[in-house]
Amino acid sequence: MISEANFVTAAFIDNERTNIEVLLKNDEETKVYPYILEYNPDNPICKELLEICSLDQIHENTWEKKKEEVKLFEDSIIRIAEKKGLLKTAIKTAKERIKESEKTAKHNIKEAERRNIAHSSSHHEEIVRLDKTEFLKKLKIDRKAEAEEYFNTIFEFLLTNKKEFIDRLFNFKLFLFEKSVVKNSTDEETKSNIRKAKTPLGAFKGFIKIWEESKKSTN
Description:
Elements: E1 7-12, E2 19-25, E3 32-38, H1 44-52, H2 55-83, H3 86-114, H4 122-129, H5 132-159, H6 163-167, H7 169-177, H8 180-183, H9 188-196, H10 200-218
Helix pairs in contact: 7-10, 9-10
């Protein structure tokens, strides 16, 4: 059913990497049609596919396809925004908000000068009301809570399999591949493992390996 004569390309179509979309040509080579195949190395049709296109290549095709889909989606959003004048409206609104912010800032500065207040930010206003000890104590608590929330978010992203995090996995992989340490790495096997990773933690493990190898080579 699948042969070198009719094969075009193949890529996974789900995050779990269990189903493959194979594009095949008809006998006249005038049309291309999709064929959905469950990934199962024991399946005779799947074996045919893997003899023509390796599993690594299917993962690579999936990676490239998703990058292209993201680009097409972003381009379409921009085109729609431009067509409906939303882009110009957004720019105009942003400029107006900046202008209004500058106006408000100038007003606040004048008010502060009038009242002989050196600074107008909320933290400095609290200093006026609180003595130094109370202020530093409050600041320490706020920073600790902010740090705990930040680290909890990172741990939850890496160590849980929530659907919302799995859905962001591809964007996380793109983020990792934008790092110079990954771009410049010659460790194709680990880079391939990052592309194939099914969880954020799996992708991050690959990044750490490449990062550690780069540190060894520079020492």
